[in-house]
Amino acid sequence: MNIQVKAQDASAARPLAGKVALVTGSTSGIGLGIARALAEAGSAIVLNGLGAASEIASVRDQIAAGFNVKAGYSAADMTNPEAIAGMITATLAEHGRLDVLVNNAGIQHVAPLDRFPVDKWDAILSINLTSVFHTTRLALPSMRANGFGRIINIASAHGLVASPFKAAYVAAKHGVVGLTKATALETAEGGITCNAICPGYVYTPLVEAQIDGQAGAHGISRDQVIRDVLLAQQPNKRFATVEELGALTVFLASDAAASITGIALPVDGGWTAH
Ligand code: NAD
Questions:
Q1: Is it the case that residue 11 has pLDDT exceeding 80?
Q2: How many angstroms separate the CA atoms of 257 and 244, rounded?
Q3: Given CB 3.0 to 4.6 Å as the disulfide criterion, which of 73, 78, 104, 218 pairs with 131?
Q4: Region 159-172 average pLDDT
Q5: Domains in the chain, ordered, with CATH?
Q6: pTM metric for this prediction
Q7: 203: Cβ below 6 Å to ligand 1?
């Protein structure tokens, strides 16, 4: 009796043991938080993203040693379809499967539409949207063959509503939500789900770096910047955390979420309830 209970506890603690997850843009911020959460749940991890080789190697080592899983890394540039193909091929060659694909890599640029730099538009569409098409189309054959797959797209509240000066980002994230629905419909009978997570503001080093600068620029306190500038649209007046997004991703990757597909789930403290 006790032995059975212990076995259940072990599988509950590591519900993704035996799975392989690839997280694009996981060298920092939300992607890294999600990679850690998936590793803690027992999944092997393939990291991806930009950054200093020594720092990436250290993150890899921490994940592998800390959670007792395999942790690899691909330097594939999400603007380059051939590099993306190489990343998927290498993942399948090394692990023999790809169960959980988290499309998280993304960039932002803020400018009025009539002065929006064309190269920034192209880069945002390429990294935030087109890369999701490439990773998804390339991962699907193996997921279909295994009869199991979880595709989790990190969109944004800006996949559901717009803000001024973020034309490319808003267009790309709305595109991700549309692609999520199309993918869900095409895979619905194959044991594969595809969902989008739509965060509002999430506390990452990138956000922290803006707080003091904004406080200086507006002549207001850090607390006022957080409440009245950064979280002006976010009714609960708190940042979501990478840990919350990690836990949600683990849930969507689990067997418990087998019937959830094609959704765009806001994690935005009520922003899109407006
Ligand atoms: P971040 O800048 O900390 O991380 C972005 C990741 O993408 C990094 O690992 C970076 O190396 C990688 N990346 C950028 N360009 C790349 C390229 N060409 N090829 C491969 N990797 C590349 O940002 P974040 O805040 O963690 O954002 C992650 C995702 O979450 C993005 O898609 C973003 O749009 C979305 N998001 C963030 C917030 C937020 O408040 N931080 C809110 C909503 C949605």
A1: no
A2: 16
A3: 78
A4: 96
A5: 14-202+241-267 (3.40.50.720), 203-239 (no CATH)
A6: 0.96
A7: no
Predicted local distance difference test score (pLDDT) of residue 8: 58
Higher per-residue confidence, 159 vs 216: 159
- Centre of ligand 1 to C-alpha 29, Å, is 7
**If you ran DSSP here, which 8-state letter would residue 98 be given?**
-
HSE at residue 267, side-chain half, CA atoms within 13 A, is: 23
**Token pair belonging to 223:** 């607390």
| Distance, CA of 202 to CA of 270 (rounded, Å) | 13
Q: Which two tokens stand for residue 120?
A: 């920034």
- Amino acid, single-letter form, for residue 88: I
Give the pair of three-digit tokens for residue 224.
Answer: 């006022």
201 assigned to active site:
no
Half-sphere exposure of 174 (CA within 13 A, CB side): 10
Q: Please indicate whether residue 154, judged by its CB atom, sits closer than 6 Å to ligand 1.
A: yes
Question: What is the separation of C-alpha 222 from the centre of its chain, rounded to a whole number of angstroms?
Answer: 28
CA dihedral over 133, 248, 25, 104, signed as positive or negative = positive
Residue 72 CB less than 6 A away from ligand 1: no
User: Does residue 232 contact residue 205 with C-beta atoms inside 8 Å?
Assistant: no
Q: How many residues does the chain have?
A: 274
Mutate to test the pocket of ligand 1, among 36, 48, 50, 135 (most ligand atoms within 8 A of CB): 50
